[in-house]
């Protein structure tokens, strides 16, 4: 477990989805704990614009909610006052470099690129991303963090 806390974390969509799916979701408590740290001002959650599309899409694709449920998800995401980073040319160029360097999709690479640019760790539960980024200390497994 990693007990050091950071002022900010890049949160990928795999973590954000855990906030809304209750059935058989491992790591949900850890996802809710990092969200609570953000709500209480103990840390800042930072996301690329893509996050606001990926989270509702994953819930809809998994048939885990209705149109009304997804409207509620959007309300919660808005109420969280996440630091949403636009896909600037700097972020897109870094995303391209990261995607090629680590053989990532652009969807995954934008989170890593944002982490590298801002200097905060990227937190994920995406095993494929973690495997590809093995040895790169900027990407952390959510369950390895000691949020209480």
Fill in the keyword field for this structure:
7 helices, 5-stranded parallel sheet, 148 residues, single chain, globular, 12% strand, Rossmann fold, alpha/beta
SSE order and pairing:
Elements: E1 8-11, H1 13-18, H2 28-39, E2 44-48, H3 51-61, H4 67-79, E3 83-85, H5 89-102, H6 106-118, E4 122-124, H7 127-132, E5 139-141
Parallel strand pairs: 1-2, 1-4, 2-3, 4-5
Helix pairs in contact: 3-4, 5-6
Count of domains: 1
What helical percentage do the residues reach?
A: 40-55%
According to CATH, what is the class?
Alpha Beta
Please report the distance between the alpha carbons of the first and last residues.
12 Å
The CATH superfamily turns out to be 5'-nuclease
- Average pLDDT score: 91
Largest beta sheet: what is the strand line-up? 3-2-1-4-5
Number of strands: 5
Strand content: 5-15%
Verbal overview:
With 148 residues, the protein is an alpha/beta fold. It has one domain (8-144): 5'-nuclease (Rossmann fold). 51% of the residues lie in helices and 12% in strands. It is built from seven helices and five strands, in the order βααβααβααβαβ. The protein has helices at residues 13-18, 28-39, 51-61, 67-79, 89-102, 106-118, 127-132; strands at 8-11, 44-48, 83-85, 122-124, 139-141. The protein has a five-stranded parallel β-sheet, with helices on both faces. The chain is globular and about 40 Å long.
Describe this structure in a few short sentences.
With about 150 residues, the chain is of the alpha/beta class. Helix content is about 50%, strand content about 10%.
